[in-house]
UniProtKB/TrEMBL annotation:
It holds the Pfam family Sm_multidrug_ex. This is Putative small multi-drug export protein. The keyword Repeat does not apply. InterPro entries: Sm_multidrug_ex. The chain crosses the membrane at residues 31-51, 58-82, 88-112, 144-171, 177-196, 208-228. It comes from Candidatus Scalindua rubra. Keywords: Membrane, Transmembrane, Transmembrane helix.
Amino acid sequence: MVEDDDELENSTSCEEKHIWKKLLATPEGRILVIGLIMALLFISVLWLGYLRFQEKAHVFIGMSATNILFGRAAGISFGYSFDLGNVLVIITNIIIETILVLIFYPLFVFSWRNILVIKPLRRIMKRTSIAAEAHQDTIRKYGIIGLFMFVWLPFWMTGPVVGCAVGYLLGLSPWKNLTIVLSSTCLAIICWAILLRNIHDRVAEYGPYASIAFVIVIILIVSGIYVLRYLRHKY
């Protein structure tokens, strides 16, 4: 009986390894590997920075977390509120969103094909699928330009994560999809940075804590939208 259990475990383990090998051999699998490597490098840089320049590292960690949790506007605003320059804010946010897309896109594709479903991400994948399906017909009318504008426009449930899912549903090849999505993302971040830089410069005139208050307002607005969306789906 014990031997049978061991054989079953070994068989399951071999099967899982075989599945992962097949997944990593696909274009999406290679994209996932690139995304994970970029994430590892980014985390390593933050860690090394923390060892040498703790105060600055805290700002970059905070900006990264704010972008991931509350979106682009909050992340960029966070950087400006701690006096980071345009180049650092723009490059950091581009890296963050690029990593998110490179990791999320293949996981979405695997989930859509029912090849690999990660339970903690199931709700996110479902929401993304619903949003992507809701927008795909509109974007299809305008093709590549439509997808580019969808990612660039600063509306709720637009952006690179949903955009790459829409691109997949439209039948775009992985690399073409990511080229459109990431180029639009870069442009959007630059536009947001220019806008928010001007706003922060004006807000800062009202006092030393005005910029931080501005970030808090953005976070509260985004949090409110999250809560409203949760309540709407729940009830």
